[in-house]
User: What shape does this take?
Amino acid sequence: MSKQEQIQVALGQRKADLVLKNARVIDVFTGEIRLAEVAIQGGRIAAVGCGYCGAQEADLQGRYLAPGFVNAHCHVESSMVTPPVYCMEELRWGVTTLITDPHEITNVLGGDGVRYMLAASQGLPVNYYVQLPSCVPATPFEHAGAVLTAEKMAEFLEEPRVLGLGEMMNYPGVVGCDEQVLAKLRLFEGRVIDGHAPAISGAGLQAYVGAGICTDHESTSFAEAREKLRAGMAVLVREGSASKNLRELLSGVIQERLDTRRLAFCTDDKHLADIRREGTVRHCLRLAVDLGMPPVTAIQLATINAAQIFGLRGIGAVAPGYRADLVVLDDLEQFQVAAVYKDGICEVQSGAFCIARAFAELGSAAQSVHIAPLALDAFALPPRETYPVIRLVPGQIVTQRVDLTKAQVQEGLAEGSLRKIAVIERHHATGNIGVGLLAGYGLTHGAVATTVAHDSHNLIVVGDNDADLYAAVNELVRVQGGYTLVKDGEVLGSLPLPVAGLMSNQPPEQFLPALEQMLALAHRMGVAQDIDPFITLSFLALPVIPELRLTDMGMFDVTSFQFVS
Amino acid sequence: MSKQEQIQVALGQRKADLVLKNARVIDVFTGEIRLAEVAIQGGRIAAVGCGYCGAQEADLQGRYLAPGFVNAHCHVESSMVTPPVYCMEELRWGVTTLITDPHEITNVLGGDGVRYMLAASQGLPVNYYVQLPSCVPATPFEHAGAVLTAEKMAEFLEEPRVLGLGEMMNYPGVVGCDEQVLAKLRLFEGRVIDGHAPAISGAGLQAYVGAGICTDHESTSFAEAREKLRAGMAVLVREGSASKNLRELLSGVIQERLDTRRLAFCTDDKHLADIRREGTVRHCLRLAVDLGMPPVTAIQLATINAAQIFGLRGIGAVAPGYRADLVVLDDLEQFQVAAVYKDGICEVQSGAFCIARAFAELGSAAQSVHIAPLALDAFALPPRETYPVIRLVPGQIVTQRVDLTKAQVQEGLAEGSLRKIAVIERHHATGNIGVGLLAGYGLTHGAVATTVAHDSHNLIVVGDNDADLYAAVNELVRVQGGYTLVKDGEVLGSLPLPVAGLMSNQPPEQFLPALEQMLALAHRMGVAQDIDPFITLSFLALPVIPELRLTDMGMFDVTSFQFVS
Assistant: This one.
């Protein structure tokens, strides 16, 4: 019926639901910009032409009309808010399609995490697609909440919003033809399989791509990106909160006049406050044009390129039959968003939402913090000759390993240059706990704890005395995950992240100030000013980044790739 | 297993089946050309790099290496040879992928025609894809051999080589929301639906595209092609034997610097002799570069663009995981083909086939000419006041209608300016026969007949006396279809086309001289020199081209769109 109505609207036999008049349409097919009217019926574009009448009409007064933007790879959990909250912030800046990889929540909840994200994003005014996390757990050196095998993945194959396989981080498993890894690749044969191949090149890259991996978002140099393009990969140019690769990559592309059709934009991880301030893809567009990329080319990266890379029909262009996901732009330099239409409905006007929406219920994702009763000496250091210490490097995610004698450790703890750190398995109450030492964090007195701890998201806690360590752990059990700050047994502040211990379901107006307050409080407790008190902790349990990490299984030396014995 | 071997080859852990050394690789992703080696394993490209060893190695001596070409839309039957013969001629010139529309044979045999083409093309060294004919019969004003309904089409949905729906010629049916037409469009929703929209523009084009139609190959002006690109269609630039649109379309594209990603090459209908002489896509490449298109851009049209338009994974690029369908080119001006590899096997070297292949059996496609016994007065003109006459226009496919008195007709038949023409239903022996008059054909004495008669492919015969008309019909029943020439009851020559009355299964070395001989003989019998004796006849039964046509149901006036009463 709806197709018939669209045909009738196109022919002028029927009034459209909505006509956008006086639009400078960005044509991602021909590369042109031209003045036209867009007639919309049943949420789809019925026609781009002139002389159409609509039940509603909007005069765009010569503003630019682009297809809704696509963020080609993002981890929603990294924003620490649930899909509804995250999506609205993306939508505000013109993103109408998200390719998400729920890697974090799946490490906590397994397939139920994927189901939660699908359910929580259902019905939102964003096309919310999922790439199934390929590496849960990320390594064999930690205990995550679940193991997502190929068999369990198969349950999601018929889900229409599951497109393909998420970033395959297990490069050695791929090129070593690990049977479990190949089973996952086979399961998604013919679909888009995202890659994760930082610095992989030469023969290794050829093997990795030949195994069926289609995209990569880890290039940090132009040469790396070019090699991946040549190998047939789509390169997702990343501009997140921490990893900012756009300038380097696109400068080279522009200078070398490379074909751009296999490039798209993504954020990977971007904080909510950063999105709120500048958007995601909109920020990429601004940077790209500033580098000298023609605006329509940049918009191709933001729209049709991503849609073609992920095989999304009816998305990414202003043409009949396409979804009426549209962004009205004031200009093609700052890409100021004047309005956003999703399925033909005006959702955003001048930065404000037109429609009030209720946020989703927590559902099955709550109650994810399960810890075995802690022994009285749980945080005691084991008797050793020398102790390996994780030393933070300001402004970097890598750490250094320092080995200290028992006497040096006692002195460091006493004078405050060392702090105790612990990672406690929090999914299945196994009682697993890794205890170690941390240098360079600061913290005068008390404890800091979080359940956001990549990639297994166990509970990580740091402090100067065992009593506060206990108290911080108990507080996170009580609030079922989040951030907490404890001093002398008193909780100074908590930011609950009750969804899998990773996400808040508060609106940003409440969440962002609460987060700011926690950061300020932590710094007042003596955490070094050049360190993010919680994000720094959240990477200390990731046993793939040099040199020394702590998991629930103990101290792990990444250089020698084994536990410290 | 084969994927593991490819990975091992890429890593240099295993010898490749074949390594092409010293190749100037055409990179359709970045637009570059670079010197490299291509390692091939199990018919797939394992790696593009350097330092590879192979069980076989070939030194390309710096020649260009492009992905195998794609002919994005062709009717194999128009070559009058079976798929094996046709494919080998395409392959010789570098085409390794064909998107075919078996519209002609399906008009004769229905679904069995599709099955025949699929079977006859099975195992050939060409990726042979089928778009299911959407309009069988083409019009309600004639009787074809079959009616292909949406229900019957559904039988082919699971066939891996059936990609989508063939050219939707019923524009009025689409925009008029004819239920049968919409049922076909719905059946192929989400797949590629080819269009056929000559001169359709404005609101009508928007409606037609919005209905779900993805491609068009009928543009004859740049403005028409540009409007279709803007509307979101992929434009298949046609360069066939009769319709040559490339120069007009690509001149505009180059001059206006349009984005080229939604353009590909096709032939629609190209005669075997023309293919043999100059190729199909290779000829397009030569013309495009001659117009000033950069060679790599032209090769993108010939390869990755077509693959992306039709959603063909693993086709159209020289990169790991892609099929090792490759063309070695001496140059990027004439596009002289030095060698062709299909699935990593060298099939063509310096224009000669490396592997001898047997041609397919006729199978179920033989015995397609079924005619009811003709009455003694079958060719008698009905008694009328005035007679409508089809007048040929030299060099054009359109005809003119002339109305003559009974006396003028008798005089014309006597002096030889008029000839009798008949279209006889030949599929189901219904006895249907349309008889009319033809001017401008020539033919001194005797009869010319063919079973190739678009689109229903009934038997069409023209002659100066009823006895020879009878004899010609009988001869085509005897040989079960083809071309024949008869004089004084004697068959002067026949070219059997036993496959559906449309195709020969002879090799080109026998078929082409036989065809030449028939043409020469027809001209010696007096057929006008500026007329192709058989192809001209084959379009006289097509009731969609102005002004006057003859079907098995009678004289049809295309201008008034009704039968002459």
Summary: Residues 508-524 of chain B form the longest helix (17 residues). Chain B touches chain A through 55 residues (CB under 8 Å). Residues 5 and 178 of chain B are 52 Å apart (CA to CA). The mean pLDDT of chain B is 95.
